Amino acid sequence: MEAARPQFCPWCGSPIEYEEHEHEPRHEVLAERARTAGRTPPPLPARVQELLAGESFVGACRGCRTVSHIVGHRAPEDAGR
Q: In what order do the strands lie in the sheet with 67-72?
């Protein structure tokens, strides 16, 4: 089952169309910079990694003129059990 893509602006609630958007998460960029500088960054907690994982979408709202970047999350498989 495919995850639903966001449909509304999180700032003003106007309906907008989001497009799938691939990006490199900021925490990965910072970790790579630390490794390049010879440091070892601490690992992110598993829960944080789960929150940051997901499909990424971007959309521009004509109502409030804000560009929004959304990471879509899926409920855990064992939720509600």
A: 19-20, 55-60, 67-72
pTM over 0.70: no
In one-letter notation, the amino acid at residue 22 is E
Q: What kind and span of H or E run contains 47? A: helix 46-52
One digit per residue, the tens of pLDDT, for the chain of length 81 reads: 455 777 888 889 899 888 887 767 777 888 899 999 999 998 888 888 777 777 788 888 888 888 877 766 555 565 455
Q: What does the block give as tokens for 78?
A: 């064992």
